[in-house]
Design a protein that fits this description.
Blueprint (H helix, E strand, L loop, with lengths): L2 H6 L14 E8 L2 H13 L11 E10 L2 H14 L3 E10 L6 E6 L3 H11 L15 E6 L3 H10 L4 E6 L1 E7 L5 E8 L18
Antiparallel strand pairs: 1-2, 1-7, 3-4, 3-6, 4-5, 7-8
Length: 204
């Protein structure tokens, strides 16, 4: 299970039911705990209220509505089976200002893998037009005071971390606004045999 799932998601079996039709989903790459915790401390230091709620991660698919859960699950599993594990290096900072009040750490190594995964995922049952071009990144400050954004951009300009990526998490955005992990998909492998028809595992 990814570090993100441990913090912001509940087990898919917690309510005894799988996701409904007509739900919003997201797909992310989680980080090793030590890196996620370090970046979380940095994000909190900039006054970002989401620091304790959303661990560091790279979004592959942002909130996207699907009307067919079974087709979506099959699609995401198929993409994961074709993907080999890869290495990610994050280094230096960037910003989406003035379009959006966001400062992020850049994705260096692995940028192309993330873009390729995004393109493959955002097809079939998840196909839709996006308002902005996809740009892999790691948010470290969002919607805080301009001086805090400046601080984040300067403080992490020399930050660097490298780690392997071997899986991606499929999440549902539930009625309470919480991201629930529905399946952690290992790259280059078949799904576990103990998964039920809704994609939930018997235990995590």
């Amino acid at each position: 299970m990814s570090p993100v799932s441990k913090v912001i998601a509940k087990d898919a079996t917690s309510n005894g039911h799988g996701p409904r039709e007509g739900v919003s989903i997201g797909v992310i790459l989680g980080f090793p705990p030590d890196i996620a915790e370090e970046l979380g401390r940095w994000r909190a230091s900039f006054g970002d209220p989401m620091a304790g709620v959303i661990p560091a991660h790279i979004t592959l698919i942002t909130t996207t509505m699907t009307q067919d859960w079974d087709a979506t699950l099959s699609h995401v599993r198929a993409v994961a089976r074709k993907q080999d594990p890869f290495t990610v290096t994050i280094a230096g900072t960037g910003t989406f200002r003035p379009v959006s009040p966001v400062v992020y750490v850049n994705v260096k190594d692995g940028f192309g893998d993330c873009v390729s995964l995004h393109r493959e995922l955002q097809t079939g049952p998840l196909e839709r037009d996006l308002p902005f071009a996809y740009h892999p990144h790691v948010t470290v400050a969002h919607d805080v005071a301009p001086e805090s954004l400046d601080e984040a951009e300067a403080a992490l300009k020399n930050y660097r971390a490298t780690f392997p990526v071997v899986s991606m998490g499929l999440y549902e955005h539930d009625d309470n606004g919480i991201w629930q992990l529905r399946e952690e998909l290992n790259f280059g492998t078949e799904p576990d045999d103990d998964r039920g028809p809704d994609g939930a595992t018997g235990a995590r």
